[in-house]
Every structure is written in C-alpha cells, then in structure tokens.
Q: What sequence folds into this?
C-alpha cells in the first residue's frame, strides 16, 4: 500500500514537472522560440535526412526521362530546374509589374510538414544561404508561398493554400482589390477563397490574379492564379469567390525564393 | 537499484530509443510522401500508447513528452502544445491500462479514440487563434480518415511493438522507482 502510494506520488510529481516544462515551452514561443532554438544543432541531421528521402523519392519518380550516367543525369536535372526557372521568369515578365530586378535564388523542396495540420513545405536553403522570414517563394508557374521560419540549412514555406495564408491581391483585368485566403473547404479542390470584394466590383471568372501593391508581405505583381468562380453572399453586400492557383502544390519540386523583402522595397521607395 | 533492475532499465531505454528513431524517421520523412491528402497514420500516438500500456504512466509520459518535443521542433504550431498532448496521452493511457484486460482490439480502440481526441485538440490549437471553425470539414477530411489509418496501423503494429518492448514474456513491467 505504501509502495503504491509512493509510486502514485512519483507519477504526479513527474506529470507536474512535464506539464510545467510544456508551459515554459509554450510561453517561450512568444519570445522567438529560444528553447527550441537550442536544438538547432539537429538541423543538419534533419536537413540531410530530408535530402536523403528526396533522393530516394527521385529514384522512383525521376525528374526527366533521360537514363544516362549519373553526371549527365544531374546535369539534366539541373537544366530542367533552370528551364523551370526561366519559364517562371518568362511568365512573370508577362505581368503588368516587372519584377525582374528582384534577386532570386533557386531551392529544392525537400519535405512536407509532418502531421498534415499545416500546408507547409521545407526547402533546402536556410539562413546560411541568406534566406529570411517573409521572403516570397515562387514556383515555375507563379506564387507558391512565403518563408515563415528559417533554420540554418532549411526553411519552412507556408503555401498559399494554407488556412493561415492571407494575401492581398488584385485582378489584372479590373484592378479591383480583394483578399485571397486559404480555406479548409476549398483546399481539397486545390483552390483558395476570394473575399472582401465590394458588390460594385466587376471581377469575373477567368480574370488573372496577381498580388497587389497594398500587400504588407508580398511583392506586387506576383502571379497567383485565375478566378474560377464568383458568387454573392445573400447575407451581406460583398462578393465571394474562388481562385485556382497556378502552382501545383502536390508536385512542387523546385522553387525560386525572391531575396528582396517587401519591407526592404518599401524602405527603398520611401 | 539492483543489478537486474539496472539491466532492465538499460534494455528498456535502448529499445525505446531504437523505436523512437525508426518511427520518428518514418513519421516525418516517409509518411508525408506516401499518404495523400495529409492523412497519415499517427505512429507517435501508437508508440506513446504502447509504452503506456506496457510500462504504465511514467514511461508513457516521458516518451510522450519527447515525441511532442520532436513534433513541436519540426512542426509549425505553438511550442509546447504537442508536448502537452502526447504527455497527457501517455499519462492517461497508462492509467487506463488497469481497467481493461489483455486484448488486442481494446488497445487499438483506445489508440483510435486517443487519435480522434488528439485531432480535435489539434483543430482547436490550429483554428481557434485564427477565428476559423471549419470543424465539420476537418472532421470529415482529416480527423476521421487519420483516426482510421492510425487504427489500421495500430492493428498491425500493436502486437509486434508490444512483443519487442516487453521485458518479460507474459508480464507487465513498470519503470518507476
């Protein structure tokens, strides 16, 4: 009986200690994750593991049909990525605002957020390569997301379809401003929501959508996608809709990170 | 501490460490690529539950805490939240062990229930700060499929994991002072 009570007491003390630790970690989150930053030494391990799994994945689904030797294979893969980057730039040049002056760096997508509660992908470049939080990320087709966390050798990119994603956009046809927001109900269809459009707006399905000038985090003129549907909510006077992003988030292999931050651009302009 | 108990503790730690590394690698690096629509089985809950069922709350809590630490490190939510969830799962399942007899299906049902509650808690952590409440959508598209996948994985893994982790054939052990 005494032993049972002693063990129960130990369980309670252990639980209390662990719960206190959880609380400390939770509070430290508000101060820039200093406690988890102590585990940064593990970053190279995770980075290598992600890359290793990515290479295994590429064996089963190689980027190209070429089946030559390893050196040529890697050259072909490199050229394919460069071609994708060129395509991306070509597409971006078609937009109203030219942003060819922005510095960009290519990166591979090496992993996805485990757990599946967030639409976040991991790229193989981190703070060592000059990646900073808030940098915009492009796929070969258009805007893919924004860097939300940087490690030494890897970075996390929150994709456009994540529920926390909130991008100020505009229609290239009518220049109406609205918000593009990630929505759970649209995610499985590969779409994002379109909100905060005034009833007087002339936006239509098929309009090209780019990031607007008023966005606080995104550079202007980045191609987002096309409006696929517009409908009126009977309860209020605003229009709602759906946007079909041009980026294929399920098959994202390489991206471009724009190393110019919106805040830097605003500073330059002012 | 007797020599026998020390040996048991070392053996237990090594087995847990091995499983920890293997299941973490599979959960984080492999499953996201295999399972579509972000509904992969939660191997962490299975490991945490099996340890709790076999070794009672203390070991379950510690393993749960460490699994939560890894999840928080590599995840994107608030730090400490997954640590809290896995620690509580480890503790509660360790306590629950005393109310059911040895059965292969009952632990799997408990693991399923644990995963469902974990899903609901993650929903709250994820969406309440944002002011969005797409509960129905998330239950149908994420929480229930994930629970089913976890239960199927638990059905396959429970017995081998239990066999691997058991220190003595046919008896439950407890790691406590």
A:
């Amino acid at each position: 009986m005494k032993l049972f009570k002693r063990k129960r007491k130990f369980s309670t003390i252990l639980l209390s200690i662990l719960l206190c630790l959880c609380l400390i970690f939770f509070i430290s989150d508000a101060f820039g994750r200093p406690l988890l930053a102590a585990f940064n030494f593990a970053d190279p391990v995770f980075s290598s593991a992600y890359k290793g799994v990515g290479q295994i994945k590429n064996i089963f689904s190689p980027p190209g049909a070429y089946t030559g030797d390893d050196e040529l294979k890697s050259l072909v893969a490199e050229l394919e990525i460069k071609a994708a980057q060129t395509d991306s730039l070509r597409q971006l040049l078609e937009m109203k605002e030219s942003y060819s002056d922005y510095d960009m760096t290519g990166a591979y997508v090496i992993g996805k957020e485990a757990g599946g509660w967030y639409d976040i992908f991991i790229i193989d470049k981190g703070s060592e390569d000059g990646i900073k939080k808030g940098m915009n990320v492009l796929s070969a087709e258009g805007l893919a997301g924004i860097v939300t966390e940087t490690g030494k050798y890897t970075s996390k990119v929150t994709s456009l379809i994540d529920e926390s994603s909130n991008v100020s956009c505009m229609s290239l046809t009518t220049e109406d401003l609205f918000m593009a927001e990630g929505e759970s109900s649209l995610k499985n269809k590969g779409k994002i929501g379109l909100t905060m459009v005034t009833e007087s707006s002339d936006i239509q399905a098929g309009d090209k959508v780019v990031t607007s000038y008023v966005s606080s985090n995104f550079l202007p003129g980045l191609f987002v996608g096309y409006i696929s549907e517009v409908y009126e909510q009977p309860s209020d006077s605003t229009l709602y809709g759906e946007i079909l992003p041009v980026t294929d988030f399920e098959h994202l292999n390489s991206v471009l990170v724009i190393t110019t931050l919106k805040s830097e651009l605003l500073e330059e302009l002012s | 501490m007797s020599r026998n108990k020390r040996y048991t503790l070392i053996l237990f730690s090594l087995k847990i460490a091995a499983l920890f590394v293997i299941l973490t690698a599979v959960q984080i690096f492999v499953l996201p690529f295999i399972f579509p629509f972000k509904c992969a089985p939660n191997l962490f809950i299975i490991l945490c539950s099996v340890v709790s069922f076999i070794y009672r709350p203390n070991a379950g809590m510690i393993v749960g805490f460490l699994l939560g630490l890894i999840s928080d490190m590599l995840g994107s939510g608030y730090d400490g939240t997954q640590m809290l969830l896995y620690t509580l799962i480890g503790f509660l399942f360790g306590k629950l062990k005393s109310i059911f007899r040895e059965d292969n299906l009952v632990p799997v049902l408990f693991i399923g229930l644990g995963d469902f509650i974990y899903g609901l808690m993650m929903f709250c952590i994820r969406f309440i700060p944002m002011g969005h409440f797409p509960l129905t959508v998330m239950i149908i598209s994420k929480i229930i499929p994930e629970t089913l996948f976890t239960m199927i994985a638990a059905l396959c893994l429970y017995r081998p994991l239990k066999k691997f982790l058991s220190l003595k054939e046919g008896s439950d052990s407890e790691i406590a002072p």
Remarks:
- Chain B touches chain A through 50 residues (CB under 8 Å).
- Helices of chain B lie at 3-34, 43-74, 81-96, 105-127, 135-165.
- Residues 53 and 97 of chain B are 5 Å apart (CA to CA).
- Chain B has five helices and no strands.
